[in-house]
Amino acid sequence: MTRSGWRDLQNWEVQRGGGLPTFGTDARMRTILPRHFLPVFYSLVLGFVLLASDARAHRVSSVSLISYLNTENNTYVLDAAMEVVPSEEQALNDQISPEDAAREFAQDYLVVMFDRQDQKPEMSIEIVDSSDEDTPEELRRQQVLTKLTGKIPDGAKEFLLYLDPRCPMAVVMVVIKDEQPSRRMQVILAGEYSRPVSVAPIVEGDPFTGEKSGAAKSEAAGDTSAPASAVATAQEPENGSAAPPRGRGKAAFLAGWRSFFQGSWLPWLLTVGIFLLTLGRRTVFTQIAVLLVAQSLVVALAAWKLNPAPASASTVLVLVIAVICGEALFHRHVRAWRLPLVAAGGLLAGFDLAGSLPFTTLFGKNGAVTGEVIFYLLGTESALVLVALVSAAVLLPLSRFEWYRRSVVQPVAIVLIGFAIFAGVEKYL
Fold this sequence. Notes:
The protein folds into two domains: 59-200, no CATH class; 248-428. The chain is elongated and about 75 Å long. The chain is α+β, with helices and mostly antiparallel strands. It contains 15 helices and eleven strands. Strands 1, 2, 5, 6, 8, 9 and 10 form a seven-stranded mixed β-sheet that branches. The chain has a four-stranded antiparallel β-sheet with strand order 4-3-7-11.
């Protein structure tokens, strides 16, 4: 067969639907698959693989803290003992040393505060071997001793330690004030503050009961005016109901962002599934708006303890995602039940977010503050809008081609249904 005859045969097979027309003599056929599509597609796949991989160098696995407060010299020292675990790949361990891992942890996650004002302590790091001589080399562990030192600000009343919401673990802390240790050990979760410790000098008695004794003396003397710290504590919820304390707005925003991406796969699977049926501008905008309103309403009510999340919300959400994605396999136009179905999915997605760890860490004990709820909602809504924009940017250019529904919509719908079912049953495995 001649070369021209072979090309004619290829074009004839393409016109019969025998494959993707990536080669041929017809210029219109060659433009069906964009030249830059495959490099962009492979780059996206590589990016997802790199993001999903959990290869890490040296990392901190546990932290225990001893905080020394000296009210006579107005100094503080935080001794942090960090267990550092190496990676299985030596090349990664060479990139980040144990000292760098400990320094990054202290700078990114540990926030020393006096009267809720961030401090910038000086840092020193020392490495010790926490394993004995009989421990095999591959099981040896190194402990990094990180010391944070600084001056207590003049007029400061309370010492706090804040743990950044991105911190992957809890921190255990003991406070020793003027060489007298506290009676209880504190466990600080991500996104939470430690119990406040007064840094006012105590003339006599236990420094941790001085406040109580001072209050008792004021009552005995007939003084009805409350101490300044008590007044500040009493006024804090009232002021906080309008705006969160400094630094907590950012923490609430990050908690909302983490809830959407790290809490469960279901909310962003629902968002992507909306784009499979149709990409009409008005239709998609209406569905995303309904999803945002329904999801934010449930999250806000759950934060204010007005609408607790039912245990079966995630299971029902899996069914809604399966119906929304499955509808794209059988229909090409929006039906009357589409918006109520999306609204139901938004309500269930809100319940799913309200059951996530960042949500319960932020609103579980202290209740909701209006400013924190607003920033948390901004975090979840920003994450949803980002997923919607990425989905539109990927699917809109492909929707122009004839093979879009057969080669894109149907496989993606099946994959999303499978992921939703897996995410729904994963907690039972």
